[in-house]
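ok trying again, last paste got cut off:
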Amino acid sequence: MPRMVRALTAWQGTPPRAIVLEPEPAGAAGLVKDFGRAVEQFSSVLSEEELTGYLRSADRLRAQEDGLSGLGRGLLELFREAAGRSFRRAGVPEASIGELTEDLVSRFAAFVAYTLAAHRADPEPDFSSAVVIRSAGPARHPTPGARELSFDVERSEIARDPRVARAVSELLADGGQR
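nice, full thing came through this time. structure:
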C-alpha cells in the first residue's frame, strides 16, 4: 500500500475511495505506446518511414532496457531527435529550434517522470476500494475487487463525456458509495 494511502487511512480511519478512469498500469508498454502518440504529432512533417523508424527504435529500446528509467531516457533522446528534425523540416529558423525542441522535450519528460513515479509508487495497484470507470468494450486491464461503471463512449473521449462527468460528480458528492 503506498505511503499516502496508509497516511490517509490512519487519518480518516478508512481507506480513501478512488475513482479511476480507464486504468492502465504504469510500465514499459504504456510508456512506449504514449511515445508513439507523442511522435505522431510530427506526422505532418515527417514521412511515414521516419515515424515508423522512431516507433521501431522505441520497441528496440524496450527490448534492450532492463528498467523503466533507462527506457525513459532513451525515449526522451528519440523524442528530442524527432522534434528537432520536425522543426527543421517545417522551416523553423535554426536559432529557434533548440528552444522549441527543449520545450516539447520538457513536456514529454514530465510525462515520463510521472510514469516512473507512478510505477515506483504502486507497481500493482489495489483497486478493491475503487470505482473504475471504463469505456465500452472489454476491459484492457483487470481491476480485481473494483466496482466498475461502463459507458458507451470511445476510450479517448471518456474524460470529456458529460455522462461520465455527471457520474464522477455524483460519486464525489456521496463519497463514492453509489
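cool. Helices lie at 3-12, 28-39, 48-64, 68-89, 94-121, 162-173. The longest strand covers residues 130-135.
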